[in-house]
Amino acid sequence: MSPSERRLQKELMSLMKEPPPGVTVDGDQASQNLTLWTVHMEGVPGTLYEGEKFVLQFKFTNKYPFDSPEVTFVGNNIPVHPHVYSNGHICLSILTDDWSPALSVQSVCLSIVSMLSSCKEKKRPSDNSFYVKTCNKNPKKTKWWYHDDSV
Amino acid sequence: MDRILGLQKIFSKEYQDSSLTDLLLSLKNLFSDKNCMNNSSKESFDLDIINRNYFEEVKQVESLPNVTVYFGKTLTELKFVIIDDDGVREHEINLKYKGVQKYVITSVNLPHSPYQDKVFNSINEILHIFRDHVNSLSNYFRELERIDQFCSVVEPLNPTFKDDYRKIFLDNRTWLHVTVTPDGTATNIHLIGQSEFWHDKLQSGLLSWDHDKDIVDNIMIIFDLPNVLSAVHEGNPSKYVSSEEDKQMCGICLCNELPDNPGVPQPLCQNTACGVFFHRSCLYEWLVACTGGRPPTFGVATGSCPTCFHPIACSEKED
């Protein structure tokens, strides 16, 4: 088993055993293919996303954790949020420039939960339609201009 | 020749949809067929061993709930995996068929097994005794499970119920040794490593050992770890376990040992408040990757700590 698979296996076990509130990983699918995970996420009660359900997709390369995972929202409910494009791409610095191997699937999930939870107004990014038309399928190919840290 | 044809027939027909025992019986019938018998002493020996009653017994055991049967390298070696009365733990017992109504236990994955190498008349008898034995150890299992769950166990490397002791991490130079007796009490409690601080705590703590509490709770109280204790009681050990484990495993690959590298995780970050351990090779690989994969000048990679972002330098080889 390669180091990246070993680490993914460990992360999967701990995420299945002690998932953060509102987060569940599809363990069967992930254990069959360790490089592609589906994570279900529920909107936190008391926030704008209360009662909503989202699906996140994680793709890992064999360089993980030296290489960040590719994380997008998938499915028919993409959260309406100033940092989430309607094609599911997420503008979040830890997914690209600020990635560190000390981060994990769990910490990425928590960051996304907190990004959603701190949202004050549900709207798409201002450049949504342009970006969605022109972007690469892989969000990691995008040179992100990080909007701000407050949301 | 006949036998080869017979074998082919059995395997093509029966192997697909019959149970293992049926298959073995057909094999046995094939080999005990008069035409096939010759004077080879070895073969007749085999035939004696594969006795119909034996298979009947195995078959009977196979139908019991909570027992799984496996054959070993030869048909006379058996392994049973039984699930204990708590319904969660699996225990293995290996035995050998030594002739009609003669069975010997060859190994058990438990300590304190008083029945080893005794001869028994039937498999059922063995299973009965083994099951009683397992159930009598239920406190022992529970204590070990709780220790493994809530403490950072450094020895045995992969603790099992066969190991009746645990070496528990207290700090970088001190470990606690505990042996668990079959009835689930702690014995042979002592420190490994010189530390007056832990030593004093242990001496006074042993006097007030509370036998109504389990071993983990007592350890937590003795070493005055209230946070840990509350985490245990809230059934939320994650914080404690992960922080203690993180200290020893590499913050990058999340493992202790690397398959192709003898190095162990070390506190390589120069920020003393950070304290996260890394394999030198993992940290080096990350720092090099951050600079676009170029090998650094003089073999020392620089960058920032993956955990605390403190400026950090790391050489490829041990200094």
UniProtKB/TrEMBL annotation, chain A:
Keywords: Transferase, Ubl conjugation pathway. The keyword Transferase applies. SMART domains: UBCc (SM00212). Residues 3-151 form the UBC core domain. It catalyses: S-ubiquitinyl-[E1 ubiquitin-activating enzyme]-L-cysteine + [acceptor protein]-N-terminal-amino acid = [E1 ubiquitin-activating enzyme]-L-cysteine + N-terminal-ubiquitinyl-[acceptor protein]; S-ubiquitinyl-[E1 ubiquitin-activating enzyme]-L-cysteine + [E2 ubiquitin-conjugating enzyme]-L-cysteine = [E1 ubiquitin-activating enzyme]-L-cysteine + S-ubiquitinyl-[E2 ubiquitin-conjugating enzyme]-L-cysteine. GO terms for molecular function: ubiquitin conjugating enzyme activity. The keyword RNA-binding does not apply. Its EC number is 2.3.2.23, 2.3.2.25. Pfam families: UQ_con. GO terms for biological process: protein ubiquitination. InterPro entries: Ub_conjugating_enzyme, UBC, UBQ-conjugating_enzyme/RWD. This is N-terminal E2 ubiquitin-conjugating enzyme.
TrEMBL record, chain B:
Residues 249-315 form the FANCL C-terminal domain. It comes from the Eukaryota. Residues 140-225 form the FANCL UBC-like domain. Pfam families: FANCL_C (PF11793), FANCL_d3 (PF18891). One of its GO terms (cellular component) is Fanconi anaemia nuclear complex. GO terms for molecular function: ubiquitin protein ligase activity. GO terms for biological process: interstrand cross-link repair; protein monoubiquitination. This is Uncharacterized protein.
